[in-house]
Fold this protein.
Amino acid sequence: MKKIALAAVTTAMLLSSVGTTEVTPASAATTVQLKDGVLVNKATGKAVEGYKVYNGCLYKNGSLAPGYVKYGSGKNLKLYHNGRLKKGYYRTKDDKYQFQDGSLIPGKDFYDNGLEELYYQDGVLTKRIYVNPSDGKLYENTKLKKGDYVIHSFDDDDNPHLNLYTNGILSKGYHFADYKKKMYLFKDGHISLATLYKGKLYKEGLPAPKNKVISDGKDTYYYNDALANGAIKDYVYKNGKRLRNITAQNFLDKLAEVQKLSAAAEVNSVALNAKIANLLTFYTENYETIYQSYTVYEKLTTLTSKLNDIKEIVGKLDHTEATIANDKAVREKLGSLYDKQRLKHVNGDILDGEYKGNIYKKGRLMGSRENVDLKNTTATYKKLSADQSATMQQTIDALTAQVMAAKSVLAAAKAPKYPNLKFNTPQAEEVLRDSLIQRRALIKKAAQQHETIDTATLENELIVGFSELGEKISFEQASTTATYKPLAAGEVAKGTFDDKGFAYYAINVDQVEGNYYFVGNHEVSNLAFWMSDTKEAINDSDEEVAKKLRYLEKGVYYVAIKGKPNAPYRFKLYQQTYNYTTMKELPSGPNALSTPRVKLPYYQYSTPSVDINLTTDEHIMLYGVSNEDPFKRTVENIVLTNKKTGKTYPVVHISTTHFSSNAPNGKYSLSIIPTQKGVPGHVGIRYETTPHLKINKPNQESRFYTLNVKKDTKFKFELTGSGKMLLYDHNHHLVKKATIAEGTDKREFVYTVKKGRYSLKAPLTIKVTPK
């Protein structure tokens, strides 16, 4: 008895790991009864200990046994759920047993699970043939499967997805093997949509039907045991590649005939015009079919080229009514074709170059001549400014060209030569004002490098350019001996510029640190500002515009402001505020436009932060975008600190703006580690939780998912669509990548996911089922 009891306990412990308990029936000698729903001993009135079947129900310690319990032994083994026989079909999670209405299924049975076959005798697993996902080999129970064996991944109407293994290893080369009394051809262990082998064509592993075009799913076509060639039904093929439909080929054949006649030693204009008219009529009647036979790129490069060939031939013919009619017809067809491509044209000729004040490039409007010139000169100046080999004079000359282009835009806008021209005057004005600042910076740089430069032409062009804006400028420098009036940050400065157009202030900043810029009336955007620690060095500082953000620490700053002589001014130095000081908690949300962002500056002495509260056990994606340049990396990483424990949790920086974390539930303080501290600007941060991957259901509403696995679990993954699935662990290390092959839209595989939290990227439909 002790041996039996010990075996039962061992079995129960083993099977409890898969969600069910197996016990051996106790003696039925004791008389029992139900009392108030509790199974008790009649003699003692106490609850019956252990397991006991009474009136078809299973009790444990007097109450209906909870959960799944296998009770009995041998063929009398029963499956109970919450004390009652389990209704319907049930297979245990370890696949060892299968039940129907609580009893073992009698006789032989077979269960096909895709890359896994289960064989049962009287409800008990006797043999398992499967592909081990860890090594990709085929096993029978615990040993490699001997001989040739065919097993399928999954079935669909188009392809049974068969796999051939030889002695447990996926076979290599070409082999024939039987599956369900049909002989299939395999290549490297798989069957293909189309395979040409020893002069015979196979479709999905079986002999292909005759007189039918068959594709391999990768743009190669076969016909009657060979690569498709020539005209077959609706298309023309060459060496297995589909070229075009028959109608489009007929058009090309007729064109070739016209070209041949036009190249003859003696050209008969009457006969040739008749051929061309016939060709154009055929084109008109079959336009959509011919047009759709070409790719988007070919529509422009090939089809328009053919029509232009016709136009060129017509242009060489005698000037007759037939020639004029054909010329008009082909130009109309070219125009229609250009319209479909949204290309600009005139009388069938695509615009390329300047036309009525605008610049076109192969039918695309680039802008007015002046706008294009401004764009080009601005790009040239920007490139030279970054070129270490360029001389200072070359840079000055490039800046001058940019100023001249901006001046031309402003002048042309006042008196356009053609109607409907558009001029980018805001950009031109911005370029002029920036060029005025750049002039001073270049002069300063040339002096530091001891280079001699000539800025006379630049200065003359700036004077003329600003006159187009109705403004008069000069190149006076700020005074180092003037009286700099005291002013507090945030205090409004009011007054009148002096005769040279300057005003001077000593601004006191009383905050430890902050980001500041100048604000004021509508004229403040046109003013120039210089700021220095001392007034003696005011002309060594860079000239800046009012809106330029400045990082300032506590102290006094000397400021010179340049405007129109004797004109009134009104401005103040304004400290930029950030919402982290007022935001109680950063909410999550998937929409980049509607989800709030917290703005965190790159301070030197303090660490701005905001609270976030994680409650859903989900992976989170964080997005940090620099306010100054969205493509520049200004944050080394994001820090999540648990407010209760003080522990920091890892955040993985996966791209310039994307961060990933699997921090557990809790309230956190979110802060940043800037790439550089004590610089102006801020980063805007938002985050979103990725939804839990639904098990046993298709998932297609998101690109990212959370997968929490409480113990090592084998899953069957079903992918539908196009693209790839990427599975990352809690440190955002890639642990599994699965790609849907080109030419197909499905993939299925089995993979064991270890215990832990995962993030899954899948821009396709995905279904995951525990095995």
Summary: The chain has a mean pLDDT of 90. The CA atoms of residues 281 and 329 lie 9 Å apart.
